[in-house]
């Protein structure tokens, strides 16, 4: 039964890793050569990108996400695997759904995985205001418009990826439920079934503040099919938990004589090439979209952001001015 399940879930892995041609994060098969075997990697909508809070455009349509089933133990099998490029947890046969967040329709989460550095100064794929985090997690979803991820993986908006940064802090008991199994997947191609986890406990409390742009898979075949969501609030884990990735996970198989640590599995930053990055919130020097496109619902969100941001005492005079104009032109006032 377990063998069958493993074979079944290996399909998305094949699609993501593009088996058949070797790719690496360094050397002759490194990122600057990926396009030779995977032409999409030379596209103009590639990921990851550097995000500037100053240049991001505030978009009032970027509402809160809804996460169906994330607060319960998932009714799914979870399988952790070392594929030589990352540690990936596959979520198989789940009823979990993500919707809202300014995307059309529902998206089904299928796996989450990690990118990390050899030390705390690097590791994240996305960079915000030139800040690199030691690790980034991607929760990969595909659109309900498709029957399976293989159909969605190369289609515009076929995938939704939620990106979360990590920073060093106290021991994280919720992630420990996942990280406890790292030593079981120390070597490439090792795989283990893990007990299901409550997804909500893995993500930060603040899911309102995020950036949005159109981009790609950050690994070959680099399809430009991803609606990217990068959350601003980092997840905290201890230095010991972070070091477990660096010390326990190898990019070599159990049979390889020269054991090599799996570290620095992040792609270099890609050019925006004129793409906009949008923010779900007013940044210090936000530009905004035209108020005429705003709806009653959007105004409610503006009001909520006004409330949140006021609590955080980070709202600027410019932001207050823009919100006032938005509300006046729409004829609505903020409720509680
Ligand atoms: Zn990733």
UniProtKB/TrEMBL annotation:
Cellular location(s): Secreted
Signal peptide: 1-17
Assigned keywords, A-Z: Glycoprotein, Lyase, Metal-binding, Secreted, Signal, Zinc
Cofactor(s) essential for the protein: Zn(2+)
Cellular component GO terms held in the UniProt record: extracellular region; plasma membrane
Residues of the Alpha-carbonic anhydrase domain: 21-281
E.C. number(s) listed in UniProt: 4.2.1.1
Catalyzed reactions per annotation: hydrogencarbonate + H(+) = CO2 + H2O
Pfam families in the cross-refs: Carb_anhydrase
Gene Ontology MF annotations: carbonate dehydratase activity; zinc ion binding
Role according to the record: Reversible hydration of carbon dioxide.
Stated family: Belongs to the alpha-carbonic anhydrase family.
Official protein name in the record: Carbonic anhydrase
